[in-house]
Amino acid sequence: MENLKAFLEIHRQEAGYRPVHDRIHDFGEVEQTLNTRERKLQASRCMDCGVPFCHWACPLGNKAPEWNGALCRGEWELAYQLLSATNPFPEFTGRICPALCEKACVLNRFNHEPTTNREDECAIIEAAFREGFILPQVPLRNGMRVAVVGAGPAGLAAAHSLNRMGYTVTVFEKNEAAGGLLRYGIPNFKLNKAIIDRRIKQMEQEGIGFRYNTHIQHLQEIGDADAVVLATGTPQARDLNIPGRHLKGVYLALELLSQQNRVLAGVDISSDERITAKGKDVLVIGGGDTGSDCIGTAHRQGCKSVTQIEIMPRPVDGPDDPHNPWPNWPRTLKTTSSHEEGCIRRWNVNTLEFLGQDGRLIGVKVQEIDWRPNPDGGRPIMTAKGEPEIIKAELCLLAMGFLKPDHPDYPENVFVCGDAQNGASLVVRAMASGLETARRVHDTLSHE
User: Fold this and answer.
1) pLDDT digit string, tens, across residues 233-273
2) How high is the pLDDT of residue 331?
3) What pLDDT sits at residue 448?
4) How far apart are CA 393 and CA 280, in angstroms?
5) Is 262 helix (H, G, I), strand (E, B) or coil?
6) Which positions ≥6 away from 102 have C-beta within 8 Å?
7) CB neighbours of 245 closer than 8 A, spacing ≥ 6?
8) Which end of the chain, N or C, is more open, meaning fewer C-beta atoms within 10 Å of its C-beta?
């Protein structure tokens, strides 16, 4: 780094979000950007540690000190080359990654002002596209074919890597466009879908074939392939089968999120099928990122109010987590841009019943609870606290995670990766799994 004392002299500066009164009226990306001078100053704060815990924490093994060093010197093309050596799609992680690397940064341990790695990598990849550093690379083919089932982050990463190795890659996708949860789960206010389209266009120029609206249910449907990569994600959401689940107004979170993204893409949805929060009191069950995305979407649809409940206890306020100390990820309270837009948040609340009138949801009966240790070990025991109450709601969204799929025994040339293999997790972990699976495919086929 040019200024070896930058981390002492320059404070962490985030780009921040557009003002709430402005952003809740559209689905444009909420995050802003720093100018070039400020971005280079932020990159200069990286200490180039002898033991780079950021590298250790990143599932992709991104070499943040190296590309931050190039960025702070204004060597944008070198920064892009260093970043893309480990990360196939920095434009995705640069927008939606929770930045495990930043929590493991030595500066986070020192003064809770880690280097702005996520924003830095987004700035690098956007400069690379803007300046023309990213050009299609069509490799010499090795004569072998690989089929990838699923065009989410894991499948795209596997396809990208295998194609660069010389394999002829065809991606089969059940939906009408590529991206998986990047396209149909994450709202546009976090990830503009033009960012996905730009990358898919480049992958097509490099020779990767995409077959959409193709739901592969049996391996025989794939046809001739030397290997198959299954990157089908976790399609089964965790449901809540309690009285009243059938009522109109109770939906799985992805039913709302995927439909809203399709509406923004120009898909015509009939009024009977349309899920909307306009003018309604909304209840979100589940305290994770998907629940947060539902909150932001409800605001943009014009909801009356939003309440989010979570069955587990409230996380510690942080910034440190005494039960999961640095450099591990701290399980602390997370307040997202959607929470900032307005939301009642409650923890230790169990859902008992959906209440309806004329077949439509009008409220949800809930119960405050406590958790006490299980004398036999294992999961703590849930106990009721006080009397049940009713939360008024005309729309309830279930954002309680996804079930890990079961797989049969496959032939040796079939590989499973991403959430399909590991269960629902982060986009960056899915991408890392896709790259690792591509290496396993190559090792297997090159030794046959």
Assistant:
1) 999 999 999 999 999 999 999 999 999 999 999 999 999 99
2) 95
3) 65
4) 7
5) helix
6) 54, 108, 114, 115, 116, 117, 118
7) 239, 354
8) C
pTM of the model: 0.96
> What angle is formed at CA 96 by the lines to CA 90 and CA 99, rounded to 5 degrees?
80
Rounded to whole angstroms, the Cα distance separating 401 from 419 reads 12
Q: Give 133's contacts (C-beta < 8 A, 6+ positions apart).
A: 76, 77, 80, 127
CA 381-384-389 angle, 5° bins: 145
Closest listed residue to residue 83, CA positions, set 139, 36, 116, 128 = 128
Q: How far apart are CA 260 and CA 31, in angstroms?
A: 20
What local confidence, expressed as pLDDT, does residue 1 receive? 58
Instruction: Tell me the angle at which helices 36-44 and 117-131 cross, rounded to the nearest 10 degrees.
Output: 130
Retrieve residue 211's tokens. 């077959």
| The pLDDT of residue 115 | 98
Residue 4 is predicted with a pLDDT of 83
In b/e form, how buried is each residue of 45-60, taking b as 16+ CB within 10 angstroms? bbbeeeebbbbebbbb
* Three-class secondary structure of residue 346 per DSSP: strand
Contacts of 217 (CB under 8 A, 6+ apart): none
Residue type, 295: I
Structure confidence at residue 3 (pLDDT): 80
Integer Cα distance of 48 and 73 in angstroms: 14
Three-state SS for 252?
Answer: strand
Q: Where are the alpha helices (DSSP H) in 3-146?
A: 6-9, 20-23, 36-44, 53-57, 64-72, 76-84, 90-96, 100-103, 106-111, 117-131
**Cβ burial, residue 4 (10 Å; 0-12/13-18/19+):** exposed
Q: Phi then psi for 182, rounded to 5 degrees?
A: -60, -40
> 3-class SS at 422?
helix
**Both tokens assigned to 355:** 């209440």
What is the model's pLDDT at position 357? 98
Sign for the pseudo-dihedral over CA of 32, 38, 41, 43: positive
Regions of the chain with pLDDT less than 70: 1-2, 448
Residue type, 367: Q
Query: What does residue 162 show for φ and ψ, rounded to 5 degrees?
Result: -65, -40
Whole-angstrom distance, CA of residue 44 vs CA of residue 39:
9
With CA atoms as reference, report the closest residue to 260 among 251, 269, 252: 269
Return the closest-CA partner of residue 438 out of 171, 83, 138, 97: 171
Nearest one of 63, 50, 64 to 114, comparing CA atoms: 64
Rounding to the nearest 10 degrees, give the CA dihedral for residues 81, 85, 88, 91. -40
Q: What is the pLDDT of residue 377?
A: 86
